[in-house]
């Protein structure tokens, strides 16, 4: 943050900036005609309208770069956003090839269109990172690295709130988790829709929800175990790890009898309790 932002116009009107400045710096945005604002140290300037096509285009450019879609520099992004009234990044996937920048021939439009389509099926964490949301960037892989379904992520986030973020990041720092939580909730619509459109993968035939208590033998972490399973059995099963036992849990993975609350709850709910090896054998034989 650069401290207070003020409109260039107000600074010129109150003689804080000399009148001549208005000959050099635009007072209103050329795209949406909202006031241009400037940071208190005068180093940054932008449009005051959060939905300005220029700002949306900047975000889109960063988004494409992050996903390795290279044909979209500033000019192309601005054209797409401006010509099609795009307000949300995910809307670019609803465009047809004919809606690529008008200044191009049909052949080039088709090539641009295909370059976006070719980059579907990206990992959820990468898609969220590419949105460049304040404070989420650096944590995207910790937050979403093991997420199989963005809707499930939000179900848990809404149920457990900031605790869910604390657990994922392995921190206990309230201010940071609060700000991440607020951004995730504020941008929920944008995040879910973008992920759904850019993470189109073949839906696995069967969803299996598991909870793991304590650790998994022969695996460095619970996440490593899930990653292994989905790598090996992903064409048949979509294995999702939850943090707590609920009525929808299919299996509790426990290497031994323990007194953990997960174990006790699984017993109470009558949920199948298996070791990691038994679970893998069941997946192998299809007896799940
Ligand atoms: Zn603007």
Q: Quick gist of this model?
A:
By secondary structure, the chain is α/β, with parallel strands linked by helices. It is 46% helix and 10% strand.
CATH class of the largest domain: Alpha Beta
Elements, N to C (H/E): EHHEEHHHHHHHHHEHEEHEH
The CATH topology name of the largest domain reads Rossmann fold
Helix percent reads: 40-55%
Instruction: Output the structural class.
Output: alpha/beta
The coarse overall form would be elongated
Instruction: Give Rg in angstroms.
Output: 24 Å
Mind explaining what this structure looks like?
This protein has 14 helices and seven strands. It is an alpha/beta fold and 288 residues long. It folds into four domains: 5-47, no CATH class; 53-117; 124-198; 206-285, Rossmann fold. The strands form two sheets. A four-stranded parallel β-sheet has the order 5-4-6-7, sandwiched between helices. Strands 1-2-3 form a three-stranded antiparallel β-sheet. Strand 6, helix 13 (261-269) and strand 7 (272-274) form a beta-alpha-beta unit. Helix 3 (53-66) packs antiparallel against helix 6. It starts with a strand and ends with a helix. The protein binds zinc ion. Zinc ion binds next to loops.
């Amino acid at each position: 943050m650069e401290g207070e932002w003020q409109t260039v116009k107000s600074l010129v009107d109150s003689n804080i900036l000399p009148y001549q400045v208005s000959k050099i710096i635009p007072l209103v945005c050329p795209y949406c005609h909202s006031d241009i604002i400037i940071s208190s140290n005068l180093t940054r300037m932008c449009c005051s309208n959060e939905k300005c096509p220029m700002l949306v285009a900047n975000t889109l450019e960063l988004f494409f770069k992050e996903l390795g879609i290279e044909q979209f520099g500033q000019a192309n992004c601005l054209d797409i956003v401006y010509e099609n009234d795009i307000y949300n990044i995910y809307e670019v996937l609803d465009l047809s090839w004919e809606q690529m920048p008008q200044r191009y021939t049909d052949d080039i439009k088709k090539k641009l269109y295909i370059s976006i389509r070719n980059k579907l099926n990206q990992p959820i964490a990468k898609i969220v990172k590419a949105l460049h949301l304040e404070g989420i960037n650096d944590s995207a892989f910790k937050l979403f690295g093991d997420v199989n379904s963005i809707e499930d992520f939000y179900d848990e986030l809404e149920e457990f709130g900031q605790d869910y973020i604390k657990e994922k990041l392995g921190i206990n720092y309230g201010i940071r988790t609060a700000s991440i939580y607020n951004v995730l909730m504020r941008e929920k619509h944008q995040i879910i829709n973008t992920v759904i459109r850019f993470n189109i993968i073949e839906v696995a035939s069967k969803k299996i929800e598991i909870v793991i208590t304590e650790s998994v033998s022969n695996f460095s972490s619970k996440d490593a175990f899930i990653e292994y399973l989905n790598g090996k059995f992903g064409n048949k099963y979509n294995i999702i790890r939850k943090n707590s036992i609920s009525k929808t849990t299919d299996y509790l993975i426990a290497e031994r009898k323990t007194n953990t609350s997960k174990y006790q709850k699984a017993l109470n709910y009558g949920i199948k309790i298996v070791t990691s090896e038994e679970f893998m054998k069941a997946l192998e034989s299809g007896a799940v």
